[in-house]
Specification:
Blueprint: H1 2-9, H2 20-39, E1 47-48, E2 54-55, H3 60-69, H4 72-98
Antiparallel strand pairs: 1-2
Subcellular location: Mitochondrion
Region (Disordered): 94-114
Keywords: Disulfide bond, Mitochondrion
Length: 114
């Protein structure tokens, strides 16, 4: 319903940020920002992005470019996706150190009890 209402208000307007070249610019800026995050991961995160993502001040320029080239909803989506992937990677890496000996339930004897 909302799409039809929006389309009826702007029947001839093309959203240029969803065209191929604009999407490619967004993806390039996104990749540059997250590469900076990985490269500078040993530095203290002092800046706050959407969804609570923290990043070092060295990545501020690439973050601004990322926000300028992408829709705000895309930025939020990519931030959530990055945080979720980071959380999964951390859990998978940490699981080996936390894993104890594997103990499976032992089968019960099926014979009569004495």
């Amino acid at each position: 319903m909302a799409v039809e209402a929006y389309a009826s208000q702007n029947p001839d307007k093309v959203q240029t940020d969803v065209l191929s070249h604009a999407r490619q610019a967004c993806y390039k800026a996104r990749d540059a920002f997250y590469a900076c995050l990985e490269k500078e991961s040993n530095k203290k995160a002092t800046e706050i992005a959407s969804v609570g993502l923290l990043y070092p001040i060295d990545c501020k320029k690439s973050r601004a470019e990322f926000e300028n080239n992408c829709r705000p909803s895309w930025v939020k989506h990519f931030d959530r996706q990055y945080c979720a992937n980071k959380r999964v990677r951390r859990l998978l890496e940490d699981s080996d150190s936390r894993r104890g000996p594997l103990s499976l339930p032992q089968p019960r004897p099926s014979g009569p009890a004495s």
